[in-house]
Protein 1
Amino acid sequence: MTIKISIDCMGGDHGPAVTIPAAISFLKQESEAELILVGREDELRAELKKQHADSHPRLSVKNATEVVAMDDPIEVALRRKKDSSMRVAIELVKDGSANACVSAGNTGALMAVSRYVLKTMADVDRPAICSILPNEKGKPTYMLDLGANVDCEPHHLHQFAIMGSVLCSAMEGIGKPTIGLLNVGTEDIKGNEVVKATATLLRADHERGALNFYGNIEGNDIFKGTTDVVVCDGFVGNVTLKAIEGLAHFFKSAFRDNLLSMLGALIAYKSLKKLNPKSYNGAGLLGLKGLVFKSHGGADAYGFEWAIRRAFDAAKYNVQEQLSTMIAELMPKSTPAEAPGATIKQSSV
Amino acid sequence: MTIKISIDCMGGDHGPAVTIPAAISFLKQESEAELILVGREDELRAELKKQHADSHPRLSVKNATEVVAMDDPIEVALRRKKDSSMRVAIELVKDGSANACVSAGNTGALMAVSRYVLKTMADVDRPAICSILPNEKGKPTYMLDLGANVDCEPHHLHQFAIMGSVLCSAMEGIGKPTIGLLNVGTEDIKGNEVVKATATLLRADHERGALNFYGNIEGNDIFKGTTDVVVCDGFVGNVTLKAIEGLAHFFKSAFRDNLLSMLGALIAYKSLKKLNPKSYNGAGLLGLKGLVFKSHGGADAYGFEWAIRRAFDAAKYNVQEQLSTMIAELMPKSTPAEAPGATIKQSSV
């Protein structure tokens, strides 16, 4: 079976210099993959030539004349750049030419354009961003939402839990992933009103065997791997994720302080590698009528290749179909309708 | 000038075995300090004897027959353990026998008992927990609230900003510390409604020269040291802090994976030491009519000594008086009155 992935080759901090080597390397690993490179054709062909891959049988180029810049406001990406590499890559998913799409572009723009082009799935109020983080059990922790929705109601968090559970189940082959609700303590009385009401919804699903709700968890449980899935609103998720990235950067900079500690870090490298955030690159935009994956904007080729891998696996494991089924089965039909233009996070995750 | 600190010697995971060696060591460093050790007198005297410090001229013992356990509900600490070491230590601040108090006990209980015994300062709606974190500039980042208030209105966050600024100014000798509002992006349009309204309040203070408001910051700015003070609600603050602790633990456990990486970590130790969280122990409970500092429950003697140091410095630099002055000056008098019994976080920070 061939799985086709469209790649926004112009997105991210580095553009084709990173996205194309990543694509070529991925094709070497994965014989079932076919990649459609989207962007300014001359630039893409030049980079392909440089990489001696201008006639790869499973690579094609789709021209798109515009580029969504990392600091473009959502409105610009949405209304003024209709031939952007980002948009064209997503349109390939919509028209069935690709099974999933990958972009390292501006998160807010990617979410907005994806919602506009693909539309939101039936019974889903708001798509969410789901990423994976490494944990002490040596497995990935699936966490969502990471910034698409800064003001959430309980039924939004409930939907995030269902979507995160489906993604984790499909990608990791876990029957019923455990779901933790991020909170300031583990007891039922803890938390703000939204979180408490969400716990009630999730407990009801748990009791009828629909979801595997573990209960409240705390910030440190993300890295302990207490649950397979961690649910939170986009404000908390985004701040937490960026604080984590900030601390990781701080550690790295401390190591670079002097030669001796660089040497130490080098020796400890094998263990540190386990924490390599690059291999955890590739966040899913869940709840759309199509699969879109977001790479970190600053990812190098190795990191971007992991994002392609995530999109490929999601398509291979039929995440989209499983999402539809689970949502149709679990989502309460009485969900209040959402006003159009709900808050969308703009900066990169 | 002598500064007296009351110490809840029974609190935390280790009790007198940690608190008393820390107290003795601190007295060696600080000739102006006088410490009042609070707890079960026989246990404290036994530990003092063990440490050959049973007749130190600047150490006294105050008997308290009960102990607030780390998992005691707030109600138990508040209503049933009226002779707890925690409560007696706080009462010594109230009656003027001590200039500040330190406890490693249960955060929720410490906040509740402090509020009950000392009362909240005039014009402050809710006390907040303010801790320091290391940053890449080699300075501390003051962050609040870290869990006392999970549901916040803009005027609460506004008050946290004022209190954090005063503490940072007094402790670090910075005239007008920069204040960052934790958000999902730096632009004014970013964030949820509470954060946007808070920014408006802080900008007004900035424009009239009352506070030094930097603007919105993101999670990674905490460790970059972009601003001296970071303001957020207690839900976001608590989850972020615990996620950070979780990641730090993950790094440590990765280093312990094998002998070689332990060696590497050892070589890199000098740089890692800079990040030593122990020296950043001691969170201030701000907004009470008296100074209370909270040590991490699991702190060792070295860490607990840092919490005593924080309390001592806060008393020495007249933080309480400065808080009163700044709050009287800056706090809008139209602040809505707060219902009693506002949410208090219970688990340890």
Protein 2
Amino acid sequence: MSASNRRVLLKSRPQGEPTPANFDIVEAPIPEPGEGEYLARTVWLSLDPYMRGRMAEAKGYAANVNLGDPMVGGTVSQVIKSRHPGFKDGDFVADYAGWQSYSVSNGAGAIKLDPQAAPLSAALSVLGMPGMTAWWGLMQIGKPKAGETVVVSAASGAVGSVVGQLAKLHGCRAVGIAGGKEKCDYVVKELGFDACVDYRAAGGNLFKEIRAAAPKGIDVYFENVGGAVQAAVVPQLNDFARVPLCGLISQYNEMQMSPGPDWRLLLIKRATVTGFIVSDHFADMAGFWKEVPPAVKAGRIKYREDIVNGIENAPEAFIGLLKGRNFGKLLVQVSDDPTRR
Amino acid sequence: MSASNRRVLLKSRPQGEPTPANFDIVEAPIPEPGEGEYLARTVWLSLDPYMRGRMAEAKGYAANVNLGDPMVGGTVSQVIKSRHPGFKDGDFVADYAGWQSYSVSNGAGAIKLDPQAAPLSAALSVLGMPGMTAWWGLMQIGKPKAGETVVVSAASGAVGSVVGQLAKLHGCRAVGIAGGKEKCDYVVKELGFDACVDYRAAGGNLFKEIRAAAPKGIDVYFENVGGAVQAAVVPQLNDFARVPLCGLISQYNEMQMSPGPDWRLLLIKRATVTGFIVSDHFADMAGFWKEVPPAVKAGRIKYREDIVNGIENAPEAFIGLLKGRNFGKLLVQVSDDPTRR
């Protein structure tokens, strides 16, 4: 650990793909906690596709990052100097410290973690926002019934991997779509999906390969990517299909609107497309807590982490995330995790 | 009445817009009812946009019409020769006799009408399929809350007119979109909508004119038309907007898929688009029967009929319907309605 607070600031707004020049890496003094606050060092930083939206000027669904401010993000931190009655030195918390190695907090929104219960980093993946996203979208919007076919794009990712495993636990055929043989092999052999289509290898045969993997059509399409995958999937929806619309990562860097499917396809199939953002539903996660942590503990839901070391490497890792270069939940290890020694 | 059965058959499948050459008008013998059947003369024939889909070869959501068969359609008929124990001569029924002046039925799907309760033709508009479509889409999918803004396209039509009036009855701001000043005046002055945008006059200002009519954004968009209206409305959806997707009349004649909105617009707003077809829900219309007929009787829901005389004029009227030429529910009067004398 350095004796300064290393922070990644938003320097300029990307036009299209973000580049390293959009970020500023600065060293600042380590802040002092006031009365009722604590100082924490960041252990884990989560990198997620939604951050692309926060870099934009255009109105998104949450407050965007101001130029010169640190990038926002979910973190696991360890309290190192507490002047807050609810937190003591050594406590681990899941919070939103952003892209910086130290932060001061009044505790709002911070959740204490029990390092005995699960690895700390899981609070940023399967037991945190991505896991809740998967559960909410699949169970509350997708409403899968045993015997139905669930297709999920970005299937090896933090959200998609949980979607497919939950679908299997509920008796569905789970079909992933992912980029590259390695990811597809992982999705089928490690996670237990019934099939996985490699959209990069498929090229112009994407529609046919999805059809072969989902021969009875698609009842639930969990949408993470948009673009060419969306165009190939939507015509294969079954009557009364549900489409939890979670993300459109292939379109986040696009400067212009890009066309979606002809709504005649949705009308004829009486399909439902529902955009959702998990933070709207954090207060209603009883079902998630009941179902997912025990399944993780029992090994029925597996997860994979893609770890980058050092906060100074966050920009490049994030740029890669938008291109699908990560394999598993992308995390930055900002400082030592004493529970992993 | 002629002494033969005048029938309109599907002669060929339209490529793009239907033309009179796609139809064959033939005279056939009046059929004889067998035991357990009745012969009825068609009084009213309903012309509806969905019929365009039935003319196509491509798989739609219901069985398409075979070449050489009569066009399908909802009708009000009078029994003139019954050999069915449940129907007697003189009874009026709502049935699906199609585009012909006489039909024989075994009574399946026929509903007896009480001519004292409402005009017979209302069974084909506000008290029939179009009214149920409006009610189901608005109330079950749109779920309007008092104070919200409901926008409906094809606002002067059989469905749209009921949508807006129901929205008003539920305390919403009702904004119509229709083609031409006459229709817009009717929607506002007769039906009591708060505003109506004339999409034909608006041209390139359509987005702005809709914004002016719905200054707080759009909570429910009842979609009947697609195309340019859809493109102008979707970016104005509010957070958690609901879109009952009922029809896309502007696209029915298109041979190619046409692009829909970028799904980023749905994601950011957490909007829900739900395609629906009323016939899936006929068994679940208790709420409709409770709400709509009394409102019609009390004059709180008004309706307008656009009547064409003679079944031989049905093809031209139907072609005009797809271009928005009708003004109100389009009906063909096939034979005398004794209750209207």
